[in-house]
Design a protein that fits this description.
The complex is a heterodimer.
Chain A (H helix, E strand, L loop, with lengths): L9 E5 L4 E6 L7 E7 L6 E7 L4 E3 L3 E6 L4 E6 L8 E8 L5 E2 L3 E6 L1
Parallel strand pairs in A: 1-10
Antiparallel strand pairs in A: 2-7, 3-4, 3-8, 5-6, 6-7, 8-9, 8-10
Chain B lengths: L3 E4 L2 E4 L5 E7 L5 E7 L6 E6 L6 E2 L7 E4 L5 E5 L8 E8 L4 E3 L3 E5 L1
Parallel strand pairs in B: 2-11
Antiparallel strand pairs in B: 1-3, 3-8, 4-5, 4-9, 5-6, 7-8, 9-10, 9-11
């Protein structure tokens, strides 16, 4: 199967600071990437996506950066809020299914 | 609009027992998926259905069967449960590549 990994399993940030969550993917054929947020006891929720022909995409308070040269994906959250505390997953799609990373747990300190 | 619903929320089985996990979506999505989530691992695809009447194996299909009953419903069956199937099971649906997840079923096999 695919290997989608995260550099840091846990991340703690102060409220109001920016957060950066990283993800390494293994399949250079992947042409689509998604970030999901999963709160405790709930299913994953879509945050933002990016296609392989882009290197940056911005949403509301979130930015995804894609570096295909080193097969690296990052999620930046601006002005992190307590409601951002969750596990964040990246997922890659090299074909007809998605492969998910193990997740990074983000804790926001008030 | 309930999105993706799953029943039951929790279930405890003894080894060898069978059960069916139910999933329904009201978003008129063509594709539906079953994942399992284990501690320290990302979501892993068990089976998916790209459209009504079709099903395909994912990454970890052994020990499971599925039925795409109609466009709304996609069930997952464990014929003879094993302790290795203790996990949280998520159903998802999609119209495009973005998947919408249900709240999950926490299954324990003793």
């Amino acid at each position: 199967g695919e290997s989608v990994g995260l550099h840091l399993p846990t991340l703690s940030v102060q409220e109001g600071d920016n957060s950066i969550i990283n993800c390494a993917y293994s399949n250079s054929a992947s042409d689509y990437f998604i970030w999901y947020k999963q709160e405790s006891g709930k299913g994953p929720q879509f945050i933002i996506d990016i296609r392989s022909n882009m290197d940056k995409r911005q949403g509301q308070r979130v930015t995804v950066l894609l570096n295909k040269t080193v097969k690296h994906l990052s999620l930046q959250i601006a002005a992190t809020q307590p409601g951002d505390s969750a596990v964040y997953f990246c997922a890659e799609n090299p074909g007809n299914q998605f492969y998910f990373g193990t997740g990074t747990s983000l804790t926001v300190i008030p | 609009n309930a999105g993706v619903t799953q029943t039951p929320k929790f279930q405890v089985l003894k080894t060898g027992q069978s059960m069916t996990l139910q999933c329904a979506q009201d978003m008129n999505h063509n594709s539906m998926y079953w994942y399992r989530q284990d501690p320290g691992m990302g979501l892993r695809l068990i089976y998916y259905s790209a459209s009504e009447g079709t099903t395909d194996k994912g990454e970890v299909p052994n020990g499971y069967n599925v039925s795409r009953l109609n466009k709304r419903e996609f069930s997952l069956r464990l014929e003879s449960a094993a302790p290795s199937q203790t996990s949280v099971y998520f159903c998802a649906s999609s119209l495009t590549v973005i998947q919408f997840f249900g709240p999950g079923t926490r299954l324990t096999v003793l």
